[in-house]
Amino acid sequence: MDFAHPWVFACLALVPLMVYWYRKKYDSRQGSVRVSSAQAFSASSLKVYLRHVPFILRLLAVVALIIALARPQKRNDQQQTIGEGIDIVLCMDVSGSMGSRDIQPSRMEVAKEVAEEFVRSRPVDRIGLVIFSGESFTQCPITTDRNTLIRQIQTLESRRFLKDGTVIGEGLATAVGRLSESKAKSRVIILLTDGKEDAPDSRLIDPVTALEIAKTHQVKVYSIGMGAIPSSIVEITGHDGGQPRNPAMDFIDEDLLRRIANETGGRYFRAKDKEALQNIYKQIDQMERSKVEMTSYKRFRELFLPFVLAALVFLFIEIVLRLTWLKKFP
């Protein structure tokens, strides 16, 4: 419950003044007879105990009227978001090297956390998720269901289901495929990887071909190379329990990522820590702004009427008691 005129409650200061005035004047208004002993008048009746009830009822009436004048209201706030969104696909590398801890607690955990923050900051966009390692997979089609997409991001683990390797080309091609039928004016892919093309024999699309596909569909790509300097990277065990390999050997192909970004109208970024990755997503967020209109609705339901009725009831009962059962004779 809110009050439209809360300053009216200052009038409640009148209540203690009324009590003081009543106690001061009460005795002077009573009739008196001088007698040698008051023993005969020691018996009490119900009227004696209830003689202050009319005044109490008047105080309650005054309090109820003050509350009514403060205009108690029940407020219901609603907000409607209307906008022209952008279709975005997060294309994330989930290869084994993403488990490296050169960025604490790991590259994968940081990438997931920052991606989740980005999704929450885009209220009207449709966003999807594509992952790739030795093969690519659509984890979540483009959607406006933020909760579902965030759950999919939170469950990502490096190289859990996909083949070992890094197929940047197939990951990019899959992401473009998600946007190929999009009617949005702006279609964007955020490609994040910590390595270079390391494709198995089953590869279908190389990075250059994927780049041409993105250009054909007029999809803008922002590419992010993630990871600290190679010397700080720990060894990662092979997917099938094979010989350990040093992810430094597969370190970022910046020339490829820069080419993909430049030729599609995007931009290449380098993220060496969590703060840098957060700043990159913020820059992308600023460069790809959606047209959003937010309309707020405030509905009020007046609640003063019950207090007015209560005040009238208190006054009515007071008047009836003063004129009948508790009537005084001069």
Q: How are the secondary structure elements laid out?
A:
Blueprint: E1 2-3, H1 14-26, H2 46-49, H3 53-69, E2 72-84, E3 87-93, H4 107-120, E4 126-132, E5 136-143, H5 146-154, H6 168-179, E6 187-193, H7 207-216, E7 220-226, H8 254-263, E8 268-271, H9 274-287, E9 291-302, H10 305-323
Parallel strand pairs: 3-4, 3-6, 6-7, 7-8
Antiparallel strand pairs: 1-2, 2-9, 4-5
Helix pairs in contact: 3-10, 4-5, 4-9, 6-7
Would you mind describing this structure in some detail?
With 330 residues, the protein is an alpha/beta fold. It has 10 helices and 9 strands. It folds into 2 domains: 83 residues, no CATH class; 204 residues, Rossmann fold, CATH 3.40.50. The strands form 2 sheets. Strands 5-4-3-6-7-8 form a 6-stranded mixed beta sheet, with helices on both faces. Strands 1-2-9 form a 3-stranded antiparallel beta sheet. About 6% of the residues have low confidence.
In short:
With 330 residues, this protein is of the alpha/beta class. It has helices at 14-26, 46-49, 53-69, 107-120, 146-154, 168-179, 207-216, 254-263, 274-287, 305-323, and strands at residues 2-3, 72-84, 87-93, 126-132, 136-143, 187-193, 220-226, 268-271, 291-302.
Shape-level CATH architecture of the largest domain: 3-Layer(aba) Sandwich
Number of strands: 9
Number of domains: 2
Contiguous low-pLDDT stretches (5 residues minimum) are: 231-250
Strand content: 15-25%
Query: Helix count?
Result: 10
**Biggest sheet overview:** 6 strands, mixed
CATH class of the largest domain: Alpha Beta
What value does the Rg take, in angstroms? 38 Å
Keywords: Cell membrane, Membrane, Transmembrane, Transmembrane helix
Transmembrane segments: 7-23, 49-70, 303-325
InterPro entries: Aerotolerance_reg_N, UPF0353/GerABKA_families, VWF_A, vWFA_dom_sf
Pfam family, one: BatA
